[in-house]
Amino acid sequence: MEENKLLLKVKDLKVSFFTPAGEVKAVDGISYALGYNEVMGIVGESGSGKSVEAYSIIGLLQNPGRVIGGSIEFEGENLLEYTPEQMRQFRGNKVSMIFQNPMTCLNPVYTIGNQLTEALTCHDKTISKEEARKKAIEMLELVGINNAEKRMNQYPHEFSGGMRQRAMIAMALICSPKLLIADEPTTALDVTIQAQILELMKDLQRKENTSIIFITHNLGVVADICDRISVMYAGRIVEQGKVNDIFYDPQHPYTRRLLQSIPRLDEEDDERLIPIEGTPIDLLNPPQGCNFGPRCTECMKICLRQKPPLAQVGEGHISACWLHFKDALEKEGEK
Amino acid sequence: MSEQTRKKLLEVEKLRKYFPVKGNKLLEKKYVQAVESVSLSIYKGETLGLVGESGCGKTTLGRTIIRLYEPTSGRIVYDGTPIYDSEKNISVKMLPYRRKMQIIFQDPSGSLDPRMTVGEIIGEALDIHGLTPSKKERTDRIRHLLEEVGLNTEHANRFPHEFSGGQQQRVGIARALAVDPEFIVCDEPISALDVSIQSQVVNMLEDLQANKGLTYLFIAHDVSVVRHISNRIGVMYLGCLVELAESHELCNHPIHPYTKTLLSAVPLPDPIKSRARQRILLEGDIPSPINPPSGCRFHTRCPYATDRCRQEMPVLKEYGPGHFGACHLLEQNG
Amino acid sequence: MKHTFAKISPFQVDPEKIMETFDIRDDDFSSASSQEKESMVEMHKSISFWQDAWRRFRANTVSMVALFVFLLCLFFAFIGPKFIPYTYADQYRTAQKLGPFEYSKSENIVRSVQDSADAFYATALRPGSLTAISKGSYYIQYGGKTYAFTMKKGAEKCILLLKQNDPEPLQLVSEKDIKDGAYTKYTAIEFTDTPEEGAKELKLIKWVFPHVFGTDSQGRDIMARTMYGARVSIIIGIMAALIVLIIGSIYGAISGLCGGVVDFIMMRIVELIYSVPEVLIVLLLQVVLKEPLQAWFQAHSATSAFVKAMSDLGAGIVSIFITFAVLYWVTMARIIRGQVLQLKKQEYVTAATALGASNARIIRKHLLPNCIGPLVITTCLQIPSAIFLESFLSFLGLGVSAPMASLGSLCSDALETISLYPYRLVFPAIVLTIIVLTLNLVGDGLRDALDPRLKK
């Protein structure tokens, strides 16, 4: 795959929040690339910077957050150099986003139909009202809303939670964006509804060939839908690889411990869980060395002083841990 | 534990909790039928898990059992003493029972008073029941409790907002433990926590149970966690208990169609299994508990619903040893 | 999987290169001890609710400036009168209708003497005049001694001079005798050892101060009156806000906590009061209450200290308080009710119930402390509105009674002569504006600081 076939290239992105208490490095130099038609999962706990990173791609970073370094290239163009007007055109047209709580981005005083057609006409001034309406109904049917004709005239509060999320997905996809950013789209939903939405997203991804950045804290959800996974911890990507590599051959201690610590329905043993001890770091006072160091059972002296660089540990599989360098060292010694 | 040695700590019979709501018309009264005729027993020293989706009444049931909500009707027996019985008009004073039954909440920050220090929060329970007459005893007890839940003793003077979610939840657990309870309702105690913290809290709850012989009613929507921690699991749907069994039995051989759906929808952190598995997808959403469907409450979404399901509400019956289900289909089959 | 994958080349890292770019020590790959791991994290310092609020408030420049200006106003109103020799009631007969920074003729004379002879002048306290030490008996206390004297019949008006460090410090001179600092002892008086019965005490005024805001038609210093007026207005504002706070919060808390029928009835009463035209009721109450209040004061002020204090304030002000107690607590009650309704559902209240806490304990320990933010904010915003109402009533002539001044009555008094002496209106009006404006801005700042969710 050549470099120019990449849809999105994020390079050394740094986002900080300047709070009265000090600078919070929410995203501290992350890089990744996303190809066409690819589903990338970003997994992390709250405060790992996974949502902030997505918001900076779509240019919706709220004060006091600021991108302070790096670049975001979308089809070769640096988004950080876009004017607000360009950014507005870019949003919705090329990239759109769905959120955890659909109620926050559906306007309660307009009908669903109104909002869908507006999303269309906003980006394509030439489209007629009739056409827009037809397209909107099509879209609602596509996301599995029955009675689309009737539903068009209803208000968001008349929709149930799952329906709202469907409507939001319809709205996000109505302009056929190349990239869809899904920020915890199923977290607020019940398991059975979550299953519906995941099936729908998988289905739509196949039909529309949209690339998706899927942000979640739920490892089970990403296992199902993603091609590649980035695991984030405290503003940095600690491990990235194909979904099978991450789940069956995790290299970073955090990923390994995380997979061990969750109770699983598919395994019989009722053994004690192996938790990750300690608490997530305070981003206001990040440790000097590895962010995961204080909670890591394999923490070494170097981890106290220096943040580990990313190392390639397999094909398309990278991990940021000094342990890999220790391994490399030992091999050197054998020679 | 064998069937004979198990002692019932808590018995709930046909417990009902309705919340009044305003209707559309003036002076019209409607009810949210949050808990509808639930009967179950909790044995001493066990963990009974309660799963279900939001709005299924599991939280209401938990709170009604310890009478944070006044039941609409039914019977609650604690350790052989009826503490509520709508037929016999029994409704005891709860203060002595508050020492025996405690609750841990879902939202760790919301359940701690932001204007109180951690020491004051834990100490409140001691003050209410007059457990520690001297100041020194009180301080010692608070320190001991903090250590018990894995917190630093010097944390007593800090305010809740200075802690991470996991630590706040530990404070909430320490508060519940302050009165030395026998029975604790864990109301989604880990749902609001980060994945890496959840297992810490689960392990701690397990340790506390082992050390103090506690009995838990563990309420959660995450089936995997409930299966891990519980001896038995009850599944609720729209206010009704639809299935109740030993956890392994329930997860491996679910008998109710809703339980089957729920289990198949749980995301597995395993890409190959997850993709290979056939999910049972339900149509639509949970109906409103204000106007629940007639008959079996699941019939609107159940793929096997018959006319009988639409008219008659099924009752919970034993279909295997300790395996209860509430479904007409089961009756027909076996 | 048929999906296309992105190339991950930018991340390729060569371990050997790493060894060059990073500072790697010999023992770096041995395990770290748990103490070393713990030393990586430090818990930041504990901030209480009030410290946090103060930090937010300090960050708000407008509110900080407003707070500073308001403190200046407080200084002006409460400590200011100590720095000027005049009081709100003293009438200086020769100093009538002076403009800002002007002196009366006799004050000018004293000023000229003061410079050269280290002199003071005295005046009768009340009623009295600056220079009219005319017929009659007087005494004055100075330097630990009492000087008594009687004006001879037919004697002229005179000025009392006191010379420090003089064996005979007390001297009376006639106005006409003072020329270019030269003066002679005025002979038309007789000194006696003890004051006669009915002698008037002359109070010393130690220096002559410019009438910064001028004087009014009765020769009263407008700055002194403005200071006293501001003091009265601020006291009324705070008292009224406290009355509103007490009645409103209790009423609101009961209504919110009890709920159901109690809440329904209590809120209908609130709505009833809301629907009453306030100004009309205020005016009626003022008029109706004045007479019985005065009668009550006269009957009881001798026996009760409370009534005495009330009667010192005057019937007008007391009826303003009554007005506030009757009408103005409704907003506060609604706010507190809303707050209590919201707090009631908080899980920590449920947790306290689960622990067996009584209702009284829940109110005392959980509900009230958590209401403090809105309580402080609403009270703070109530003060300017009370000041405004008082000024409005005084302006209509219904507030404080003469010679007591309030900012409103000062404005009202000035209105008669507005075309000739506009500054008499301007100064009290400016002070009133500053107090009301700064209090509002401080209240806004407090709201942002105490309850960040209310912002926007």
What does this protein structure show overall?
The complex is a heterotrimer of chains A (335), B (334) and C (456). Chain A has 335 residues and is α/β, with parallel strands linked by helices. Chain A is 36% helix and 24% strand. In chain A, the strands form 2 sheets. In chain A, strands 6-7-8-3-9-10-12-11 form an 8-stranded mixed beta sheet, sandwiched between helices. In chain A, strands 2-1-4-5 form a 4-stranded antiparallel beta sheet, with helices on one face. In chain A, α3 (112-123) crosses α4. Chain B has 334 residues and is an alpha/beta fold. Chain B has 12 helices and 13 strands. The longest helix of chain B has 18 residues, at 195-212. Chain B is globular. Chain C is an alpha+beta fold and 456 residues long. In chain C, α4 crosses α15 and α12 (347-354) packs across α13 (359-395). Chain C starts with 14 loop residues before the first helix and ends in a 6-residue tail after the last helix. Classes of the chains: A alpha/beta (335), B alpha/beta (334), C alpha+beta (456). Chains in contact: A-B, A-C, B-C.
Salient structural properties:
heterotrimer, B: 334 residues, alpha/beta, eight-stranded mixed β-sheet, five-stranded antiparallel β-sheet, 12 helices, 13 strands, 25% strand, globular, C: 456 residues, alpha+beta, five-stranded mixed β-sheet, two-stranded antiparallel ribbon, 15 helices, 7 strands, disordered N terminus
